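Quick one, tokens below. Sequence please?
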């Protein structure tokens, strides 16, 4: 079974680039343009999945998504990766909020990053998802 990746990223071109690379690495990919779309999709995802969550998005940003998820127990099968091209403090804040809610998180990605580095990251996360189911 292919691992599942959800990408919440408001830059459509960047989301497409990430999705294309992830598909080459054998992932099933779903893209969302903001946190509102992501929160709407999450309940329908039954398998363990990696969620790439952009910190700075319109409508509902990554930090707000994490806060919302902390209020529910529906995120137990997901691993979260914070992405930002902005201030690193926001990624650190999102990680702290996620940890407080016992969400499974992995290292943050700071834009720009190379597609080679992204492929290595995806391989590592695929292994972790297979081992832990989260």
């Amino acid at each position: 079974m292919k691992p599942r990746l959800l990408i919440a990223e408001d830059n459509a071109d960047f989301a497409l680039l990430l999705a294309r690379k992830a598909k080459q690495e054998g992932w099933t990919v779903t893209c969302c343009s903001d946190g509102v779309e992501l929160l709407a999709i999450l309940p329908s995802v039954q398998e363990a999945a990696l969620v790439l969550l952009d910190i700075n998005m319109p409508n509902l940003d990554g930090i707000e998504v994490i806060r919302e998820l902390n209020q529910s127990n529906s995120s137990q099968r997901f691993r979260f990766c914070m992405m930002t091209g902005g201030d690193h403090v926001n990624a650190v804040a999102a990680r702290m909020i996620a940890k407080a809610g016992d969400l499974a998180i992995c290292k943050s990605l700071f834009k720009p990053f190379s597609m080679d580095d992204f492929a290595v990251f995806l391989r590592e996360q695929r292994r972790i998802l297979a081992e832990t189911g989260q």
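The chain is about 45% helix and 20% strand. The mean pLDDT is 88.
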